[in-house]
Amino acid sequence: MPAQPVPEKFQQPPIDELALSEIKSAILAKLTLAIGKEATQATKHDWYKAAALALRDRIVHRWLVSEKESYDAGRKRVYYLSLEFLIGRLFTDALNNMGLLAQYGAALGDLGVGLNDLRKCEPDAALGNGGLGRLAACFMESMATLEIPAIGYGIRYDYGLFRQIINHGWQQEFPDEWLSFGNPWELQRPEVVYQVKFGGSVEQVTDPKGVTRAVWTPIETVQAMAYDTPIVGWRGEHVNALRLWSARAPDPMLIDVFNTGDYLGATAHEARAEAICKFLYPNDESPAGRELRLRQEYFFVSASLQDLIKRHLDSDGQIRNLAKKAAIQLNDTHPSLAVTELMRLLIDVHHLRWDDAWQITTATLSYTNHTLLPEALETWPLDLFERTLPRHLQIIYRINEAHLALAEQRCPGDIEFRASVSLIDERAGRRVRMGHLAFIGSHRINGVSAMHSDLMKETVFHDLNHLYPDRITNKTNGITFRRWLTLANPGLTDLVRSACGDEVLDDPTRLDRLEAFAGDSAFQQQFRTVKHRNKIALARLISERNGIRVDPGALFDVQIKRIHEYKRQLLNVLETVALYHAIKDEPNRDWVPRVKIFAGKAAASYRYAKLIIKLINDVAEVVNNDASIGGKLKVVFLADYNVSLAEVIIPAADLSEQISTAGMEASGTGNMKLALNGALTIGTLDGANIEIRDHVGAENIAIFGMEALEVVARRAQGLDANDVITRSQPLARAIRAIDAGAFSPDDPARFASVAHALRHLDHYMVSADFDSYYEAQRGIDARWAAGPAWTRAGILNVARMAWFSSDRTIREYAEDIWDVPTRHATQPPPARLAKG
After folding, report:
1. Which domains does the chain have, with CATH numbers?
2. Alpha-carbon separation of residue 380 from 279, 432, 649, 689 (angstroms)
3. Is the N or the C terminus of the chain less surrounded, counting Cβ atoms within 10 Å?
């Protein structure tokens, strides 16, 4: 059956004139009363803020209803603790989920402003860095969509990570001033303030009844004040809250000190308190940076637990019922202090016995692990931990005592086993192991892809899994299709609706109906037309930002992710150099034109990653200005990668680079977003690439390179790569060119360390996997040249991605870990949305 033709604008229901009039009146009222402007004086930002506030009013009504219904029903609640929430722009996201995009577009048009112009006025919220934070955002949206009562807890960063500027090819970091114009989405809660304490001493005090308790006398107190942002589920039926904490001093100024003339000293304690929420991931190379990061993590954990316990007591009244009414999910090791803080609150504040408190703690908490890198599992020097959180160290010692007794019982006399599972690492200066703490204090520990969860049992948590064999489970990551298909790619969404029916908007499993059209030439042409329009939009953005003209007809080869050695941007740029050499050698050959597109930030202290960014830009400078290759290869690095930039890149991508060293990527979610938008994946058998291959079919993905066990075996033989370099002329030539300064004539030795690592310190198997990768890329060239076969594979990628919805992931969390009910995925949309 042929697909129906897709009109320029997918047919929408008629817009209710009364509803349209109400929206326009609400926006004008906000413009006058909240912004203080007449329409004739208003800037685009004024219009954006007025429109956002008018929309927020509608959302708040739904929000209050959702809250009341869940509390009246006594429903169990989920509390999601994450140091990152990469929520992106909320305006069009909320409009889309509320079913009001068309209505607001028409209303704003009548008022003389464009919806897309206003969307650009909204900055991306600087609340995250990469996949971890974006996953948290997708999960929050899915929990609202599935009508799970939930609250996300995090920090309201003043500046987030950083704003990335590329200056002469080098990354430079500047504050991301996302709050400079205010944030219309948040509601300040000045009445919701908790005291978070640091330092001091602990003494044992016996009360008149003869009960001995620990009394913590801190030397510093910081106040945590709440800001709430509503998170709207699909169809607007349920709204949850993202509660972020801002730090402040109890007394903003010491007046007596100020009056002595010490004006800076009078506010020094305020600056120390507020530093907690200034930046995400402060540079921890210095002792002060490490202390600030520990203070950050405890600050948000303590405030969040105090808040959720108060909520629980207000609704239930019994602290002993906490695990029955609350599920707390720790997103990575950053909130691991929740184990000790919940124990402290239960024992010291609510006066429970240790065994009862421990049972409640482990039954309430669960932990998501995101890494197999031992160095990424946080540890804290014992002296820093004791100085900052003395009571919590006491609790850790007591947890460890019982834990090690169990280890001795399980493996009598095995000192190595006890040392391996201990909460205190004694090997390289005594350090507290936060991954171990989260594992021991949780009833479920999940990995984020099948391979990752299996490897957890064999690597970082091998011995802990032996001690607690039933705790590790798998929950493969997912993405919200509302953001990454419906909103980011409306052209493809319209085409999907024409083939699968409108039901696909509520039930992504209907995507499988696309398979019937994968070989249909007319449908393929429509699919290519949608992709080409998206590529024109990205080409325009590249021209505006970088001054580089690229051909939308070329193959858009995309690698967008945090810059890290294991993610192997270096392998990609090395292949770029080899391809450049090959084109120069045979300029008249029928080469497939390519545009290599990179984007991502390197941690400010990660010097080698920043050198890789410089290499990418130096290679781009040479390649893009070499007329002899006739524009057959272009290289682009797009600065300041964020959600909004991803929403332009991903729909335009033809090829998705997922090329991490096998066994090192926990899951990935960019791989899912790109495949959902019709890009073919080139990747290793790592993370969720394996499950993507299993779902889309091995013939619709390009797999290369060593598998995880092969990587381990090669490392055991040593890291020198001269054997593979000697056998590979393209690789040897590319390394020589980089080493000789062919791409850095102003500083020929700039990349000497890169060349040395490629030859002698190939820990991430860049050189070892090069030939396999280069061959796979030439296979991509052949598939691209085949035309219809490429398009068919792209359509099948879209058709078979339904399983990677974050709704599926959250439903699995709800059933297996949290024990909370969810709305059924295929529930039809409410009839009331016909009127918007």
Report:
1. 1-73+90-123 (no CATH), 74-89+124-474 (3.40.50.2000), 481-741+768-802 (3.40.50.2000)
2. 20, 5, 38, 33
3. N
